[in-house]
Automatic annotation (TrEMBL):
<dbReference type="Pfam" id="PF04389">
    <property type="entry name" value="Peptidase_M28"/>
</dbReference>
<feature type="signal peptide">
    <location>
        <begin position="1"/>
        <end position="19"/>
    </location>
</feature>
<keyword id="KW-0479">Metal-binding</keyword>
<keyword id="KW-0732">Signal</keyword>
<protein>
    <recommendedName>
        <fullName>Peptide hydrolase</fullName>
        <ecNumber>3.4.-.-</ecNumber>
    </recommendedName>
</protein>
<dbReference type="InterPro" id="IPR007484">
    <property type="entry name" value="Peptidase_M28"/>
</dbReference>
<dbReference type="GO" id="GO:0004177">
    <property type="term" value="F:aminopeptidase activity"/>
</dbReference>
<dbReference type="GO" id="GO:0006508">
    <property type="term" value="P:proteolysis"/>
</dbReference>
<feature type="domain" description="Peptidase M28">
    <location>
        <begin position="207"/>
        <end position="383"/>
    </location>
</feature>
<keyword id="KW-0645">Protease</keyword>
<dbReference type="InterPro" id="IPR045175">
    <property type="entry name" value="M28_fam"/>
</dbReference>
<dbReference type="GO" id="GO:0046872">
    <property type="term" value="F:metal ion binding"/>
</dbReference>
<comment type="similarity">
    <text>Belongs to the peptidase M28 family. M28E subfamily.</text>
</comment>
<keyword id="KW-0031">Aminopeptidase</keyword>
<dbReference type="GO" id="GO:0008235">
    <property type="term" value="F:metalloexopeptidase activity"/>
</dbReference>
<keyword id="KW-0378">Hydrolase</keyword>
<keyword id="KW-0862">Zinc</keyword>
C-alpha cells in the first residue's frame, strides 16, 4: 500500500530498539545475506536518480507539478499521498472524452450496475473447503526472503521473476484458457498479468473484464534498507494466488473474462498500475470492475476482526456490492474506512473511469501502520494472521465468481 507516514512515526518504526533509526537500519542490513552487492547496486542507482524530474499529483482537484525523486521522498516524510504521472500524464483523458461524446460507446463502462444478491453459494462453498494456509505461508516465506522488492533494485527484479515462475507453474495445466504475461516497465521489475479467457466472448464484450489486483513491490525509508513487505503487499499477493488455486481446483472457468494483476512500483506512486491502465484505455479494453487486495493479514491486538472497506475515491456501487459479498461469504463483518487520495492501485483504474474498490485488513487507523515500510514487516509476529488472510481469499474468490460467473460446461465437469 502506498501509505504515507509522518517521519517521526517512520523513525520510531525503523528503530525497533533504542538505537537511532539509521543505526538500526544499518544493523539490520549488515546482517542480511548478500548485503554488499545488492546494497551497492541499489544505492548507486538511487543516488543516480534522486534528482531526476517527476510529475506528481497530490489530489484530484490539484494541478500536477514537477518535483524530483528526492521531492517524492519528502512528500512521503510529510504524510502526503501522491500519484507519479511522469509516464502517464494523460491517463483517463481518452475515456473521459469518449464518455462525453458518446455515452453508449463500448469503450465506456455502463451504469455501474452490480448484482444485488449472490447466486453461486453452492459452488463457492466447495471452493472455500479447499482454502489452506500452507500455500500462502510457503509463498510468503520465499517472497519476504528477498532483501527488498524495491522496484528499481536487482532483488526487486529477482522477486518478480520468482513470482512469475510461481504463477506460471500454478496454471501450466490450463494453457488452453489461461495465459500469463509480463507487462514490461523501464525500471526493470515488470508487472504480471494473468488472463483467464471466458467461455462466452460475447458476454465479455458486453460486460468487460473483471480484475483482481495486488502489488508485488516493497519499500523502506531508503531503497537500500531491507524491506520484507510481508503484509505490504506480500499478503495481498499470496491472497489472490490462493484464490486462483482453489478456484482452479474446483474446475472453475468464468463466463466473462477475468484477470489477476500483480503490479510493480505501487510504492513509487502507482507507476505500474497506471501504465497497465493506460494501455487498456488506449486499446479500448472495457473493465467491468477492479478490486485491489493490499494488506490482508494484520489484526491489531485488542481490536475486532473486520474487513476495512475503503469509502473514499472508490466506486460506491462496487463497494456496496463487496459489502454484500462480505455479509454472505465471510465469517467476519466489514467497516467503512477512509484512506485518502492514491491509496493503492485501484486509483489508477478509477482514473480511467472504471469501477474500482479497495478492501483492506482493518480500518485505516487499526491497520499495520507501524510495521509497513520497515524491516519489521514480517509474518512472524502475533498480529500477522493467516486466518484473517483466509477471509480475503474468500472475498477474492467470491468477487470474481459472482461478477464473472461460473461456466455451465465447466460446472458439469467440475466437482459434484
Amino acid at each position: 500500500m502506498k501509505l504515507t507516514i509522518p517521519i517521526a512515526a517512520v523513525a520510531v518504526a525503523l528503530s525497533g530498539v533504542s538505537a537511532l533509526p539509521i543505526q538500526a537500519g544499518v544493523q539490520d542490513l549488515a546482517s542480511t545475506t548478500g548485503f554488499a552487492g545488492s546494497i551497492f547496486t541499489t544505492l548507486t542507482s538511487s543516488f543516480k536518480h534522486m534528482f531526476s524530474a517527476r510529475l506528481i499529483q497530490t489530489a484530484p482537484d490539484q494541478q500536477p507539478y514537477w518535483t524530483t525523486e528526492m521531492g517524492k521522498q519528502i512528500l512521503w516524510y510529510r504524510g502526503i499521498h501522491f500519484m507519479d504521472l511522469t509516464d502517464t500524464p494523460t491517463l483517463g483523458q481518452i475515456n473521459a472524452a469518449l464518455a462525453q461524446a458518446n455515452p453508449s460507446s463500448s469503450f465506456v463502462k455502463d451504469g455501474s450496475k452490480f448484482p444485488e444478491s449472490v447466486s453461486h453459494q453452492k459452488q463457492l462453498k466447495r471452493v472455500f473447503q479447499d482454502i489452506s494456509q500452507d500455500g500462502p505461508r510457503a509463498h510468503l516465506e520465499k517472497f519476504t526472503s528477498f532483501h527488498t522488492r524495491y522496484y528499481k533494485s536487482e532483488t526487486g527484479r529477482q522477486s518478480q521473476a520468482w513470482l512469475l515462475s510461481t504463477v506460471s507453474d500454478l496454471v501450466k495445466n490450463h494453457s488452453d484458457f489461461i495465459k500469463v504475461e509480463e507487462f514490461p516497465h523501464p525500471w526493470g521489475q515488470n508487472s504480471i498479468l494473468l488472463k483467464i479467457k471466458a467461455s462466452d466472448k460475447r458476454l465479455t464484450d458486453k460486460k468487460g473484464v473483471t480484475i483482481l489486483g495486488a502489488h508485488q513491490d516493497s519499500t523502506n525509508l531508503f531503497p537500500f534498507f531491507a524491506a520484507p513487505g510481508a503484509d505490504d503487499d506480500g499478503s495481498g499477493t499470496v491472497t489472490i494466488i490462493e484464490a486462483l488455486r482453489v478456484l482452479l481446483l474446483s474446475h472453475w472457468r468464468p463466463e466473462s473474462d477475468v484477470e489477476l494483476h500483480w503490479y510493480s512500483a505501487e510504492e513509487g506512486g502507482l507507476l505500474g498500475s497506471q501504465a497497465v491502465a493506460q494501455a487498456y484505455e488506449r486499446k479500448g479494453i472495457k473493465v467491468h470492475a477492479m478490486l485491489q487486495q493490499d494488506m490482508t493479514a494484520f489484526v491489531k491486538t485488542g481490536t475486532k476482526e473486520t474487513v476495512g472497506l475503503v469509502a473514499d475515491f472508490v466506486s460506491q456501487p462496487l463497494t456496496k456490492f463487496i459489502g454484500m459479498l462480505v455479509d454472505n461469504y465471510l465469517d467476519i463483518g466489514y467497516t467503512h474506512t477512509k484512506l485518502g487520495y492514491a491509496g493503492s492501485d485501484h486509483a489508477s483504474w478509477t482514473k480511467i473511469g472504471a469501477d474500482s474498490a479497495f478492501a483492506i485488513e482493518a480500518t485505516f487507523e487499526n491497520s499495520n501502520l507501524k510495521r509497513i515500510h520497515t524491516t519489521q514487516d514480517t509474518f512472524d509476529h502475533p498480529e500477522f494472521s493467516f486466518e484473517h488472510l483466509m477471509q480475503f481469499v474468500r472475498l477474492s474468490a467470491s468477487f470474481v465468481v459472482e461478477l464473472a460467473g461460473w461456466s455451465e460446461v465447466e460446472r458439469r465437469e467440475g466437482v459434484n
